[in-house]
C-alpha cells in the first residue's frame, strides 16, 4: 500500500464525517421546523393521491353523465359535477397522477442534464466551462413558456396523451438552474483543501467527483430540484391549459381549469377545486424546498 | 451655524465647565442566540479638549464597542447598554431623546473607521457623501454644500479636490480614502473625534502621513481625540494619555510616559514586554500567554487572573479590583500594583 | 464602462443567434414533414403547402432556411399567418394594449415588492417579516392558470369590482385586475431578493458610517441602503420580463385582452405555426434587448462596474 493510498483512505472518513454532521445539524433543524412537517405531510398525501387514487374516491373519473351537468355536491361527488357531468372530486383526485408523473419525470431529466452540465463545467473549468456557460445563456435567452410552446407544439400532434411530449419539453428547458447550482457548488468544493490534496496525490477525476465533490454539492442541488418539481407541475398545468400539454382523454388539472373556465359564470366549483389542488401541490414542494434550504443555510433566516 | 449652536445650547444639563467627554462605568452586552456576551463591563475614562487619549488592548476587549456606544451607533439588538453614563459637557447622552442625540453625532462627536473602503457608500460619489452632512445638518443648498465638500477635500490635502469630488470611493487609493473619511468626520467641526484603528488597513508609509494629518488637524481645531489602536509606536508618538482595556474594563490609565517607564498593571506590563523596547515603531502587539476570556464567561474577581503571573487568592474572588489611584493622574485595577510597579 | 458594454454586446449577439436558432430548430429540425408541423392536425391543401414551402424555403438546406428566417426577422417581414393575415400587422395591432398591461404590472410589482421588501428586511425576523415570507410562498405557489381565472371569478364576476373582459382600448382601470394578476407572477421573487439584499446591506460598514453622520434612520434606509439593495433587484428585471411574457399569454387569454399574448394563445389553439413562430421570435428578440438594457442600467447604478 502506497503512502498516497493511506492518506486518501484517511481523508475519506473525515469528509463523510463532515457532511454527516452538516446533514445531522440540518436534520435537527428540520425536525423543529413546522413548515417542513406541514409540507412533508402534504407531499405524502399528494403522492398517495397520485399513485393510489382509489384510496380517496371510489368513483370513476371517466364515468360522466350529461344529466349531471353542473350539478352541485351530492353523494360521493362532494365537489359536484362539471359541464360534461363528470364527478369533479374524482377527476381532481385522478388528475394528481398526470401532474406528479410529469413533474417527477421532467425534474429527474432536468436534474440529470443539470448534473452533467454543471459537473463538467465546474470540474473542468476553462473552455468547457465557457462553452457550457454560453449554452446556458442561450437557453436562458428564450423565456421558458415561449420555448415550451414552440417545442411542445411540435412534439405533440400524435395520438397519445402528451405525457412524454410535456416531460421532454420541461426537462430540456429547465435544467439551467440545476446546472448553475451544481457548477458553483463544485467550484466552491473544488477549492477546498482536501480536494486539492486528493488531486495532488493523484486521485482520478472520476473518483474525486464522486467521493468528494458530489456529496458536498448535493444539499443545494436537492433544494433546487425540489422547488423545480413544484414549478414544473405548475408549468405542466399552464401548457395543458394553453393546449400544448396533456390532451385528449388525459385527466389533468390544467385541462380541467381550461374547460371549467368557460363556464365559470354558471358553475364555479369545477374551476375552484382543481385550482386549489394544483396550488396546494406546488406550494407543498416549494415549501419543502424552502425548509430544506433554510436547514442547510440558516444564515439569512 | 447659529441654528446648530442654539440646538446644542438647549441640551439638558449642558455645562461648559464640565469635562469634554466623560465615560463612567459603561456596561454593554450583546444578547445573542448563544448567550449574553458582556463586551464592556464598567469602562471609565475622560477626555479634555486638545488631548489625545489612546485606547489599547487585545482584539475583542471591547474598544470598538465602547466607541460605538459613545457615538450611539451600537447595533441594537443585539447590543444593549445596561449601565453607566456617557457625558458630553455634562449632558448625559444616554438619556437624550434620539433626535437630539443625532444632532450631537457629527456636530460634536465624530468618528472615523478602520476600513474606509467599506465604510464609504460605494454607490455615491464622495462629494455627495460629504455634501450630505451640510445639507442634512445645516440645510445648505446643493451647490453650497458641494463647495464646502471641495474645501474639505482640500483641507485633508487631496490633490485636485475640485474634480475628485465627483469620484466614487473605489476610485481612490487606500490613503486617499482614509483622508475622505477624515474630511467627513471633521466636516461639522466636532469637538471630539474617535478614530478606531484609522491606519491599520494602510501601508506603513501612508500610516505615518495619515497620523500626521490627524495630529495637525487636531492641533488646529483643539479637538479631543480618542485613538483606538494596536500600534504601540504610534501611541508613544502622539498620545498624551493611555487607557488600557482588558475584557471590557479600563485596567490602567496613565500619562503616556509614566506608563512606558513603569506600568502599574500586570496586563500593561505584559503588553509592553511583548515588544522589543528599542524598536517600538510600527510594531503590533504580540500575543500574551493564554487567551482573553470568553465574554460569555468572564472569570470571577480580576478578569486577568488566569493569565496573571502576580495572581494570588484575592484576585480570584469578587469583587473585582477597584481602580486604585496608584499615583497622581494614574489608576490601575490591580490589588498588587505596588509589586508590579516594583516598589 | 466602454469595455463592459462591448463585452455585453458581443455576448448578446452570440445569445441572439443562439436563441433564435433554438426557436427555429425547435420548430423545424428533424421534422419528417415540416408543413405538418406548421399547420398542426389540419389538412394542408396543395396551395398552402406550396406557399409555406416558398415562405420557409423548405426545399432548401436547413441552414439556408435559418438564414432566410433570420433575414425576415431582421427586416420585419414575418410572413402571413395561416388565416392569411400579415403577422407583422397583427403584431402592430396587438402591441399597444400589451405594453400598457405590462407597464402597469411592472409598476405595481415594483412598488409593492420594493417597499414591502425593505420593511421586511428592516424588521428581519419580526411578525411583518414572517408574514411577508409566508405571503411570498403562497404567491410563488400560485400558477398563473390558477390565479387568473380565480381572480376573474372572484373580483370581476362575483364582487363586480372590475370588468371581466376588456377591449383593445382598455383604460388603466379596466386593465388593473389583469395587471395585478400579472404582477403577482414576479412580486414574490422581487420581494425576496429585495429583502435579502436589504438584510445584507444593513450589516454593511457604510450603514454604520451613515448613522455616525447623524442621519435619520429613514434617510439611512431610503437613501443609503436602498440604492445598494436595488442593484441585485435590477438584474431580476431581465428574468422577470420572461416570466411576464409567459404570464401575459394566459392573462390576456383569460381576460380577453386582444394583445400579443392573446394572439399567441389563439395561434397555439388553432395550431397556426407561422403565427406562433413569428410572435415567439419577436418576443425573444425583445427579451434579449431588454436584458442588454438592464445590464447597462446595472452598470449605471453600480459605479464599481461602470469604471471597470
Ligand atoms: N454586533 C455584535 N453582535 C455580537 N457581538 C458583538 C457585536 N459587536 C461586537 N461584539 C462582541 O463584542 C466584543 C468586543 O468587540 P470589539 O469590536 O469592541 O473588540 P475590539 O476591542 O474593537 O477588537 P479589535 O481590536 O479586533 O477591533 C467581541 O468579542 C465581539 O464578539
Ligand atoms: S488583581 Fe491579581 S490577577 Fe488581577 S492583575 Fe492584579 S495581580 Fe493580576
Ligand atoms: Mg475594533
From TrEMBL, chain A:
InterPro entries: BP-dependent_transpt_permease (IPR050366), MetI-like (IPR000515), MetI-like_sf (IPR035906), OppC_N (IPR025966)
Keywords: Cell membrane, Membrane, Transmembrane, Transmembrane helix, Transport
Pfam families with a match to the protein in the record: BPD_transp_1, OppC_N
Location(s) in or outside the cell: Cell membrane
Membrane topology classification: Multi-pass membrane protein
Residues annotated as domain ABC transmembrane type-1: 96-289
Major location category of this protein: membrane
Bilayer-crossing regions: 35-56, 104-126, 138-156, 162-182, 213-235, 271-292
Superkingdom of this protein's organism: Bacteria
Family from the record: Belongs to the binding-protein-dependent transport system permease family.
Protein name stated in the entry: ABC transporter permease
Lineage: Bacteria, Bacillati, Actinomycetota, Actinomycetes, Micromonosporales
UniProtKB/TrEMBL annotation, chain B:
GO terms for MF: ATP binding
Protein name: ABC transporter ATP-binding protein
Domain of life of the source: Bacteria
Membrane topology qualifier: Peripheral membrane protein
InterPro entries: AAA+_ATPase (IPR003593), ABC_Ni/Peptide_Import (IPR050388), ABC_transporter-like_ATP-bd (IPR003439), ABC_transporter-like_CS (IPR017871), Oligopep_ABC_C (IPR013563), P-loop_NTPase (IPR027417)
Compartmental location: Cell membrane
PANTHER family given in the database record: DIPEPTIDE TRANSPORT ATP-BINDING PROTEIN DPPD, OLIGOPEPTIDE TRANSPORT ATP-BINDING PROTEIN APPD
Species this protein is from: Actinoplanes flavus
Family: Belongs to the ABC transporter superfamily.
Main location: membrane
Domain ABC transporter: start-end pairs: 21-272
Record key words, sorted: ATP-binding, Cell membrane, Membrane, Nucleotide-binding, Transport
Gene3D superfamilies: P-loop containing nucleotide triphosphate hydrolases
Presence of keyword Membrane: yes
TrEMBL record, chain C:
Intracellular or extracellular location(s): Cell membrane
Pfam families, sorted: BPD_transp_1, BPD_transp_1_N
Membrane topology category: Multi-pass membrane protein
Key word Lipoprotein present: no
CDD domains: TM_PBP2 (cd06261)
InterPro entries (UniProt xref): BPD_transp_1_N, MetI-like, MetI-like_sf
SUPFAM superfamilies per the UniProt record, alphabetical: MetI-like (SSF161098)
Keyword Membrane included in the entry's annotation: yes
Alphabetized UniProt keyword annotations: Cell membrane, Membrane, Transmembrane, Transmembrane helix, Transport
Domain named ABC transmembrane type-1: residues: 95-298
Residue intervals passing through the bilayer: 12-29, 99-122, 134-155, 175-193, 229-250, 275-301
Domain of life, source organism: Bacteria
Similarity field: Belongs to the binding-protein-dependent transport system permease family.
UniProt-recorded name of the protein: ABC transporter permease
Annotated source species: Actinoplanes flavus
Organism lineage: Bacteria, Bacillati, Actinomycetota, Actinomycetes, Micromonosporales
